[in-house]
Structure formats: structure tokens, C-alpha cells
Amino acid sequence: MTRNDSSRPARPKVESIRQLTRARWAILTVFLIFGMSNAAWLARIPSIRDALGMSPSQLGVALLAGAVGALVTVAAAGPFVNRFGGRAAFVTSALMFAVGFTFMGIGPAVGSVPMLAVGIFVMGSSFALGNVPLNVESAGVERRLGRTVLPQFHAAFSIGAVLGSLIGAACAWAGCPSRSSSP
């Protein structure tokens, strides 16, 4: 007779381990990209402010758009994930992320503070929507692996932030314009 010891978790199958490893690396990559993109953007804020001729208070109002976007979206993120699933929420977030960053780049290039603010708003919304399925999946991978890996995901964000800061600083040092110099 075989003994069924339900007190010990079953070992994952070989294929499951491969799938978990791929999921873990995918999540690490997303955290790294989030850290890089956010830090690279933050490093460029002074040149964006200067390119648009914004006062510190005007810059503060434009940056507030991101917090408002996140606040508006965070309340809807859970129900969105429940209704459409984590994959749909994450894909939607990634598309919003691309649109937000595009507007944040075009705004200063064409001298439009409203376009910059819309981009910042969409980025805040994207971040709030994407964090729900990302953190749910992170916790699920950790649970299925049976060991603590969440700190690795947050470390990937921090590594990305360092890399993004270096990229932003290098762009500033090289004099990369935030606004087109053509009339």
C-alpha cells in the first residue's frame, strides 16, 4: 500500500519547475523594466521642466496627475482583474504604459504641458492597474516554489532603478534635449 502523507506538499513536476522558473524570470524582468523606466524618467524631470519653462509649482501640478491617475485606477484594478483576469489587466497596463510614456516624450518635444500631464496621468493609471496582477502572480510563484522570492522581485526593481538613473544621468550629461530645437 502506498502512504498518502498530506502533511507534506507534493514536489512539483519537472515541467512545473520549468514553468515556474520562466514565470519567475518574466516577473523579475517586468520589475527591472518598471524600475528602469521610472528612474530614467525621474532623472530627466529637471530638463523637462526647463524645456517647458515650468515653475516648480507648475511642475508639481503636472506630477500630481500621476498620483490622481493611480488613485482613480487603484480602486478599479481589483474588480478589473476579477472580471477580465490578470493577463488582460497586465496587457492593458502594458499598452497604457506605452501610451503614457509616448505622451510624456512627445509633450516636452512639442512644448505641450497638457500632453505631458496626460502622459503622466496615464502612467499613474498604468502603474496602478499593472501592480495588482503583477503582485498576485509574484505571490503565487512564491507560494508554488515553496520558498521566499518576493525580495528578489523588489531587488530587480531597485537594480532597474539604478540602471535607469544611470541612463537618465548619461542623457543629461550628454546634453540630450528634452525638446526639439527646431522651430
TrEMBL record:
UniProt topology in membrane: Multi-pass membrane protein
Record localization: Cell membrane
Keywords in alphabetical order: Membrane, Transmembrane, Transmembrane helix
Name assigned to this protein: Major facilitator superfamily (MFS) profile domain-containing protein
Membrane spanning stretches: 21-41, 61-81, 88-107, 113-134, 155-175
Classification via InterPro entries: MFS_dom (IPR020846), MFS_trans_sf (IPR036259), MFS_Transporter (IPR051788)
SUPFAM superfamilies linked to this entry: MFS general substrate transporter
PANTHER family found in the cross-reference section: BYPASS OF STOP CODON PROTEIN 6, INNER MEMBRANE PROTEIN YBJJ
